[in-house]
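FYI - complex with copper (II) ion, inputs then prediction.
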Amino acid sequence: MSDHDKLNDLPSRRTVLLGAATSAGAIIATSEALRASTAVPPQAAGAGPAGLINVADEVTTPDLSQLPRVKQVLVAPPMLPAHEQVATDEPKIIEVTMTVEEKLVTIDPDNGGTIWAFTYNGSLPGPMIVCHEGDYVELTLVNPETNMLEHNIDFHASTGALGGGGLTHVLPGEEVVLRWKAIKPGVFVYHCAPGGEMIPYHVCHGMSGAVMVLPRDGLKDAAGNPLRYDQAVYIGEQEFYLPKDANGDYVQYESAGEDYSDSLDAMRGLIPTHVVFNGAVGALTGDNVITSAVGKTVLIIHAQANRDTRPHLIGGHGEYVWESGSFSDAPQTGFETWFIRDGSAGAAMYTFKQPGLYAYLNHNLIEAVLLGATAHFQVDGTWNNDLMEQVAKPRPIRA
Ligand SMILES: [Cu+2]
């Protein structure tokens, strides 16, 4: 099929959204499947929780009118929003806004790999939300009229209603407001989950992010001693399955959703073309290197919504690791490589002891080196020969 034919075969946005039966591409078929499979009305929030399947008739409504409200300004990874490690006040309602942007993103600058990504606030992955246990997160999720597809959000940090997925379906031109209480401290994934095949399609187009729920009194080791960080870094690992043409070149598409059928075919093979940190090969290396210094303690939050990964800091260690992401549990210590299960986030803390370049990567080295899952830390400081010294430079072998 030529590009021209492809375009002519694309359904209009309205028919896509309504799932109308037309001559149609795969998106329409899936949109219909979506409506049938989710069994959750898109406007559930407007009708109240009772509009959902299997929700109790009786609703307990708390009085939150006395709680302070704070707007959290979200930022793109690897940054985190400004936050306190130890809460200095009582629980509050944290207001955040995320706008869905469907946008053409370059995943692989060297080889022409692009994707019409689905993003929260335009970044891959979506921005991190930070709160404390007992706070409420109140999200306004905006799906602008200019978008093509329906989206929602499933917060693994939340409790009930498909993680909010059942209450947050928004069509282009709609917004929805969801509030959930952070009762579980830890780091967690969030992701889009519109239903059926659209779930992996959206997640594998970048639509995931992370939440950090800190204990009110901050992080602690197994003995209860405080653990504090000087800097926090948010690594969102995502894998992509970019369709290729008969020549092995990445296919370029004209609009969001046009790659639907090709993408599902590529995903069924379970072999990603790219495994990257923060949206692109090289997003955290070279000019984008993360800087630190000897003596600084860094907390690295690593999220992966769809695939297992094995973070490793070359030249350093996971001194404290919350491998499951739960801050209810004491961190384990002394990891060489740790494991992040798909659909979860974990956190590791390390204090730099030696200057130089550190690679932080997925220690499946094929994924790190050939597919992109590598970040770099450039650490300033004074070299300590007690820890390591090149005793003799490379020289001819002596007899
Ligand atoms: Cu989505």
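The two ends are 67 Å apart (CA to CA). Residues 1-53 have pLDDT under 50 and may be disordered.
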